[in-house]
Structures are given as structure tokens and as C-alpha cells.
Predict the structure.
Amino acid sequence: MDIAESIGFVQFWGFTPSANLLETSSNSEKKIFLSGLSDIRHILRTLSENSLSSGFPLTFYLHENTKEVLARHMLFIYLINDMTLPIRERVELFLEVYGNCLIRERAAEYISQASQNLIKIVTQHKNAPSLKSIFDLSALKFKERDDLEEIFRSWILGVDFDMVGLRDQRLRYHYKERYDHRENLVDWDYHWGYKDIAPQVNYRHYREWRRSGIAYEYRFATYTAPNRTLSAYIPGKKKLTKDSVLVRGFWGDIVNTPYWAFGLEVNCCETCTEILNKVANIERVHHEGDISDFNLTKMLHQMETYEEYHFPPEKDRMRAYKKMWSNEEPKCEEIKEVEETKEEDQVETGNTENKDRLGAFERFSVRIVPILEQISALGMKSKYKGFFDRVVIGGASSIDNIQAISALGCEECLFSIEGVNFVSILKKEQKEEAMMGIKKVTEGAGWVEVARNQTWTSYRKQGFSS
């Protein structure tokens, strides 16, 4: 089985849980280089957990090899900072656009509207939204900005993209002669590989995503619109002439799922972790969707209010569920309760008045610097030598240019390289081989391992003493 063909030629989401990029709080500016992480999960976790303390300037340099992935980063940063939407709606929109191949018409309309604003940002239009101040486009060449503009235009309503047909082509190529027996193969994959490393993921949800590409569903919504943000171009050849061409299609993950970033670990206290991992009658009470929803809600809430967020008590959850599922008008005796919770609801809707972004983005004077230039070229530039305080290399990047990566970090820089523990299609010996390869390369660069967890292995330059 071709691993790249299974997890995607273009990685639209990461395969590790989110993590806090900062070891401790600081009073000085931090410059963080993130390469090939495929989404913004670590940025959200970092801002969320540090927003409870005093702020300091943070600049995130987002490096990707694929322009479409970088464009998605910009969309999600725009979305979480859209203060016209309540937190609940931002969370649902984020997860839907993040992991679903098919989305609601309403979500497609939102992407279309957001794309037009993002076009104004990358073209530096005079009517660009105020959020433009977050993005520093100085590291992009004019051609790269033009490419991003074209990508955003391809997300606008009316642009044809046959997600169902294109994804089915991928599935037929993947399963080959076993296509008609794919349900049995999905069952095998889950019970003999996936379940062991992701028990939080419900089998029915896993099976549905493998079948339709829909990872997150809310209530009785209908998911029929193509998620154009998952379209991308990759190099190909014409069948007859063998001429090189760029082929537009769906080239993302069809096996590993988009649940790893937010749906595996509960980013909270022991009590919340216990509640969300509760088991009753051999079945989990909560699943990856609940955990993703909680984690993202917690992140946005803390970034917006600077207050801790915990999983609500059962009585509050039941009241919220009744409101969410019921279409009935409130009864007379319910009016008083609604009035009493008005102030609480204002927090949920995000206190949007007179705000154009999340509080954490202001507190930390956050700047986002998109980069598409190759790491080998970046390492040669004097402006970036010894420039970064933190460097993280994700699964969609490469450590072949380890010397260039090393040159980017300052003497005190903490380097981290994501592992392959959560790539479910890899066998144990393949994962061990990959880790040995990373160890060999980092030792050759003079790095010393200082920490290891399920997400990544961290290193310092040889000779550095903390």
C-alpha cells in the first residue's frame, strides 16, 4: 500500500494532538517557526493556555510546501477571529470546514464570503478588513500572493468542484479490486490498527468518514456542498502525450482521519478528562466529536475572555441540549430563566461589541507570517540565521535539510520534530524505523534530545545548557 496515496499527497490536517509551543511564560518577544504542520492546532493551544497569564509579543512564521494548505491556515485564523459569530457557531464552522469533504450550504456561503475578504488582505486592498494587521505578507513573493488570490477565488460559490466524484476516484484507486468489499476492509482497519491508538474515535463515525468524508455532523444538518478548501493541484502527466501538467482534485487523507488534532486528548483538568473519557456498558459516553468540540470551545473561550473554561455540569449540559434540539417557543415560566441567563449568554456569544478579533491576538500582539520558500533557501538568508526561538517540523515537512533547519534557530532554540505514532496505517516496525531515521539525522546535526512525548521529540543544539 502506498502510504502517501493513503494519507494524502496534500496534508490538510495534522496527525498529532495540539500542544503548547511555549515552555514557560516570558516578557520578551518570541518568534516561532512552524513548518509542515498542516493546520493551526498548536497556535490555538499556545494562545489559549498562555492567555491566562500576562501577554508578550508572539510572531508565528507559518511555512508550508503547499499553497492550498497555507491558504486554509489564513481562512481558519480569519474564522476564529470573526467576532460577528458566537463561539458556538465558530466552533461548528471550524470543525466542519476543517475535516468534512461535504459541508452545509451555509458553510459554503461563509467560505465564499470569507474568501473575498482574504483576497482583499493578500492584495492589500484599501477596503481590506481590519484583521489584515495580523498578517505580515512580507515573506511572500508577488507570484505567491497572486497564487493565494487564485486559491481564494476558487473557493467562491459557483466554482465547480465535484468532491463526491473526485473522492470516489481516490477510493477506487486505493481499494482497487477490493472496492466492492471496502466496508469489510474499513472494519478490519479500525479493529486491527486504528482502535488501539485512537479508542476515543467511535467506530460508526470512523466508518462514515471513510465512506463519505464527513467527520463532524451537527444535529440534522444536510451536508451536500463541496468543501472547496480541500481542492488542490499536484504535478501529473497527460495519459497520451505524457506532458507535465498540474491536476486539480481532492488529494487529501482518505484513511487516517482528521480527528487527531482536537479529538484525542482532553486539554483540561483531571475532572474534565475523566468526564469526557467515561465508559458505561463497555461504550464510551463521549467520543471524538465531543472532545473536539470541547477542546476548541475551551480554546476560543479562554482566548476571548482570559478565563478558564471547564466541561459544564450535567444539569447545564442537559439544559443546553434541550435548547439546541428543541424548536418550541419558550413557555411562560421559562421567560424568567431566560432573562436570568442573559448575561451568561452574552459570554457565549463572544461579547462581540466593538471587537474585531480574539482578545489573545491583541494581548500577545500576534503576527502571522506566511512563508512558501524552501527551507534550504531560508537557511541561507542572513535575516533568518539564528532568528527563531522555537522551531517545529511537522509531518508534511522534511528534515533532509537539517543543517538549514539548525541554522534558523538561535543558540537557546528548542527544536521539535513530530513523530509518526498516530499514522494508523504504519506498522510498529515502520514507526520504529522512522524514529531511528530521525535520530540518525538529528545526531548528525549535533542536536541533543531533551524531551519526548507522543506528539514530538524535542532537541537543543549541542553545547547549550539550560
